[in-house]
Amino acid sequence: MTVSDLKLKIFRQIDSLEKNRLEEFYGLLLNYINGKKDISDWGKLTLAQKQGLMDAIDQLDSGKGISHNDVIDKLRKKYNA
Question: What are 23-80's pLDDT values in tens digits?
Fold first, then answer.
């Protein structure tokens, strides 16, 4: 496989990602490029913790998440801030 073939294959895979997965991939890519690729903590998690994180990602992907701004607005209203 040539470099051009590999780049095209990567582009096509990225292009097919949904928004949430694309943002997740972008974060991973930035961490990798910046040399912060540290997945050693993942191995220290229990199976229940790993499953909880994966379930949370699936919930976000299915639109069940609450945006940061909505949470902040709700707390500001609650505490009159």
Answer: 889 888 887 787 765 667 788 889 999 999 999 989 988 989 888 899 999 999 999 8
Beta strands in 1-81 (DSSP E): none
Q: How many residues does the chain have?
A: 81
Q: What is the DSSP letter of 67?
A: -
Rounded CA separation 81/76 (Å): 5
Nearest Cα residue to 50 out of 38, 6, 58:
58
**CB 9, CB 50: distance < 8 Å:** no
Amino acid at residue number 41: D
Q: Count of CB atoms within 10 A of residue 64's CB?
A: 9
The tokens for 63 are 């639109």
Q: Are 56 and 20 in contact (CB under 8 A)?
A: no
Judge whether 61 and 18 are in contact, CB under 8 Å.
yes
